[in-house]
Amino acid sequence: MRIRDLMQLADLRLRCLAGESHLDRQIRWVLSTDVLDPRGHLSGGELVLTGLMWRRSAEDSEAFVAALAESDVACLAAGEAAYGGVPEDLVRACVKHDVPLVEIPQGVSFSHVSGCVHRALIDNRHEDLADLLRRRRKLVSSVSRHGGLDALLALSADDPEVPFWLLTATGRVPAIAPSHPAGAEGETLAREFLTATSFPHRARIRSGGRSADFSIFPVGDDIRPRVIGWFLACEGDYRTWSDGTRESMTELAALVSLERERREEVRRLENAQLERLVTDTLAGNPGEPGELAGQLARMGLDQSPYVVVAGAVTPASAGAIARTVMVDLLVPFSDVPQSIVHATAVGTEAIAVIPMRKDVAALTEYIRSRAGLMSLGLDRHRLAIGISTAAVGPEALLSALGEARQARKLAELQSGALRVVATQEIDSFEQLLAAVPAEVRAAYRDRFLGPLLAYDNAHHGDLVRTLEVFLETACSWSRCANALHIHVNTLRYRIQRIEALTGKSLTSLQGRLEFTLALRVS
């Protein structure tokens, strides 16, 4: 029952004194009280009847109404018998706390008001139950026929109690129906979902120059991290809905969760071929080019340029989490049907292959543009993503897979919740070396510099410094000697000692590169 419905009962002769914009709020129950702090008796949505016996001063009105606002009541109805009218300080307090206030005239008993509310609630509940049963039969029938997520949403949208959208944690629409919001509006709703402390969650957002209320219902229970979640964004404030409407949206969210699980299982089976291909490649058994070409053709990747994207969530999580997040990120960018974005989980890593309609730089910047939103839902997790160069053909796929995984390892070294590195951004050997495990770099450094460091420590020498300056001066004897303030003959002696201790020659290009790398990884 709405406040408006109650006020239209002629025999009650109620008059609205505050909160006329909230007359569509639903009344869930009625409570009569004359205690100053009634919070212990309130659970939200009540019509509170009071004879004002608690009031001694304006401060009492402020305290009483503040308690009602905190308890989220639907409306306050005050009798005028005690003061010959409703005190102005009570009206001001209701305006301040945005609590609707109606006046009960003398001659109208509280029991009569309560009786009207009770009868209306019983009648409404019977109607809600009948309507809920009808909707439930339709939805369950759709699920039992395996109509799919799109069919389920289309059926719900055909006969909506409230308009709604299904969105992912990045604001993407994962199904065909119903019609979806504009990108900015979807992202705003996603932020509300990611930052909500409890559900259902009421959000007020601005769209098209006006403010609108939305109610957010999560799809599934205990979604962690929340960035992999879906939600229903319903127009209106759920607190003003009937019990039946709230139950309908909660049940729809539960059915969508079941359909999502079914859909994910189908996608996992569809991508089993990619999982085998990646697993075999990582194991050193990539297969023959002809066989790979056939596999790619069956996945729709026989002609289009494509890229490989590798991702992992840290601290170590199942690769399925990274796969879910990556698909959510990649589908809007790829401009191709969702089924063509192939993604699989291999251990703690996720690998995705997508046809490219734009360049890799645009893909990289697009993913980075989502970092702020993604960080809200990753909780304490971090997502690292590596992107290969564009590739065509089975041989290129194997190379692209290695590129993406190496770039992902580089991304893990960066700071931030979402970190992205594209292969084409690796423009120095320092970045390339960063992807090599620390123990391998240490072993390489010790192999070349270990003997020199030991000699310097034992003889108070300066061989490592001499090697560094020699390479920095392009192996020029005179410039290096001047930089070190030593004679050229002394320099020649030191270089000979370096070559003797390491077994490497500084006269060859390979030797100079090896020494340069050893110095850079130290």
Give your account of this protein's structure.
The protein has 522 residues and is of the alpha/beta class. It has four domains: 3-118, 3-Layer(aba) Sandwich (Udp-n-acetylmuramoylalanyl-d-glutamate--2,6- Diaminopimelate Ligase, Chain: A, domain 1), CATH 3.40.1390; 146-267, Beta-Lactamase (2-Layer Sandwich), CATH 3.30.450.30; 271-427, Reverse transcriptase/Diguanylate cyclase domain (Alpha-Beta Plaits, 2-Layer Sandwich), CATH 3.30.70.270; 438-520, Arc Repressor Mutant, subunit A. Helix content is 50%, strand content 16%. It is built from 19 helices and 14 strands. It has helices at residues 3-7, 58-70, 88-97, 110-144, 148-158, 183-195, 243-270, 272-282, 289-298, 319-334, 360-369, 371-377, 394-411, 429-434, 438-459, 463-472, 477-484, 488-502, 509-520, and strands at 15-18, 29-32, 46-50, 75-79, 101-104, 164-168, 201-207, 210-219, 230-235, 306-314, 342-346, 349-355, 382-387, 418-422. The chain has a five-stranded mixed beta sheet. The chain has a five-stranded mixed beta sheet with strand order 11-12-10-13-14, sandwiched between helices. β7 and β8 (210-219) form a beta hairpin. α5 runs antiparallel to α7 and α16 (463-472) packs across α17. The N and C termini lie far apart (75 Å). The mean pLDDT is 84.
* Structural domain tally: 4
Oligomer classification: single chain
CATH class of the largest domain: Alpha Beta
**What proportion strand?**
15-25%
The CATH architecture name of the largest domain reads: 2-Layer Sandwich
Q: Over all CA atoms, what is the radius of gyration?
A: 35 Å
- How many strand elements? 14
Tell me the strand order in the biggest sheet: 1-5-4-3-2
CATH superfamily label of the largest domain: Reverse transcriptase/Diguanylate cyclase domain
Q: Mind summarizing the main beta sheet?
A: 5 strands, mixed
Task: Briefly note the CATH topology name of the largest domain.
Answer: Alpha-Beta Plaits
Strand pairing plus helix content: what structural class? alpha/beta
Q: Spans with pLDDT under 50 lasting ≥5 residues?
A: none
* Overall mean confidence score, pLDDT: 84
What's the N-to-C terminus distance? Answer: 75 Å
The number of helical elements comes to: 19
Q: Give the helix level as a range of percent.
A: 40-55%
Shape: elongated
